[in-house]
Amino acid sequence: MNPPEVDRVAASRAAVAARRARAAVKAAIAAGERNPLDVMRTAFAEPLGAEGKLRVTEFLTSIPAIGVTKMHRIMDDLGISPAKRLGGLGKHQRERLYDFLYDRLSARTPAPARLVVLAGPTAVGKGTVANHIRENHPDVLLSVSATTRAPRPGEVEGVSYYFVDDAEFDRMVEEGELLEWATVHNAHRYGTPRGPVDAALAAGNSVLLEIDIQGARSVRRAMPEARLVFLQPPSWEELVRRLVGRGTETASEQARRLETAKVELASVDEFDFQVVNSDVGEAAQEVVDLMKTRKAKR
Ligand SMILES: Nc1ncnc2c1ncn2[C@@H]1O[C@H](COP(=O)(O)OP(=O)(O)OP(=O)(O)O)[C@@H](O)[C@H]1O
Ligand SMILES: Nc1nc2c(ncn2[C@@H]2O[C@H](COP(=O)(O)O)[C@@H](O)[C@H]2O)c(=O)[nH]1
C-alpha cells in the first residue's frame, strides 16, 4: 500500500470504530444502563469523544419513550437544529437541553405502577393505544370489560368486550363482580370484571384498564395505588377528525360524544399523568414505562 492508501484505510478504520462507540452509547441509554444526563455531561467535557459526537437527534431517540415525532417537537421547542452534535451545542442550547431532560427524567422516577388506568375523551385513541400495548407487551394484562352495547363489525367476544344483556349486567353488579362500572355517553353500561384484575395483580403482573373518566374516578376510590393516565389529543380539531374519520357513530351520536369530551378535557388535573397521543407507538411506550415492565425497561 502506498502512503495515501494507508491513510485512507486508517481513516476508514477510525470512522468504523467511532460509529461503533456511538452505537454503544445509544444502546446503553436505551437499555437504561446509562443516564442521559451523565452522557450529556461527558459530551460537554469531551466534545470529540463518542458522546460529544452523538447527534442530538440520535441521542434523544435512544431515550425510551422519545420517538421520532416527539424528538422533532423537542428539537423545535429547544431551538436546536437536527444537524447539531451534543459536543457542538452552544452554552444556551446545552442548558435548555439539560434542563428539559432533568425535568423529564425527574418526573419519571415515581415508584412503578402495577395497575394503570388509561382514560380520556372519546376518539382520542384509547382503544388504539391499548391494542398496541396488547400486541407489543404481552406481559401487560389488558382488562376485557363487560358492556351492554352491541358488538361492532370485527369485534370479538371475550377479546374486545364481553357483550352481555341488561339482566346479566345487573347480576354482575349485584354480585360484586365489577371493580367499577358506568353508563357511558348516556347510552350503554360498561364495567371492569374484578376477578382477572385481582388475579393478575396477585401474581405480580401489570394490568391496564382502558375505561372512561367516571370509571377512572371509581378505580381511584377503590384502589388508590392505581396510576391514572389521561390521554390527550394533539388538538381539538384532530379529536374531531378522529371521531368523524372512525365513522362508527351517527352524526347525532358524534355531537353527543363531543359535548361530553369538552367536559372530560377539563378533568385532566385529576390525573397523575398526561400522555399526548400524536403517535400511537410513542404514546403506548409512555404508558408502559409507567409500569416498568421488563419490556419497558428494554
Ligand atoms: N395517534 C393517532 N394518530 C392518528 N389516528 C389515530 C391515532 N390514535 C388513534 N387514531 C384513530 O382515531 C380513531 C379513534 O381511536 P379509538 O377508537 O382508539 O379511540 P377511543 O379513545 O378508544 O374512542 P372511544 O372512547 O370513543 O371508544 C380511530 O380511527 C383510530 O384509528
Ligand atoms: N367505566 C368504564 N368505561 C369503559 C369500560 N370499557 C370501556 N369503557 C369506555 O366506554 C367508552 C365507549 O367505548 P366504545 O367501545 O363503545 O367506543 C370508551 O370511553 C371506553 O373507554 C369499562 O369497563 N368501564
From TrEMBL:
Domain Guanylate kinase-like intervals: 113-292
InterPro entries per UniProt: GK/Ca_channel_bsu (IPR008145), Guanylate_kin-like_dom (IPR008144), Guanylate_kinase (IPR017665), Guanylate_kinase_CS (IPR020590), IHF-like_H2TH (IPR055201), IHF_actinobact (IPR047806), P-loop_NTPase (IPR027417), Ribosomal_uS13-like_H2TH (IPR010979)
GO molecular function, one term: kinase activity
Coiled-coil regions listed in the entry: none
Enzyme class: transferase
Swiss-Prot/TrEMBL catalytic activity: GMP + ATP = GDP + ADP
Subcellular location: Cytoplasm
Keyword Cytoplasm carried by entry: yes
Keyword Nucleotide-binding annotated: yes
Main localization, broad class: cytoplasm
Annotated EC: 2.7.4.8
Binding-site residues, ATP: 120-127
Keywords (A to Z) from UniProt: ATP-binding, Cytoplasm, Kinase, Nucleotide-binding, Transferase
Cited HAMAP family: Guanylate_kinase
Functional description taken from the UniProt entry: Essential for recycling GMP and indirectly, cGMP.
Family, similarity comment: Belongs to the guanylate kinase family.
Protein name: Guanylate kinase
Lineage: Bacteria, Bacillati, Actinomycetota, Actinomycetes, Micrococcales
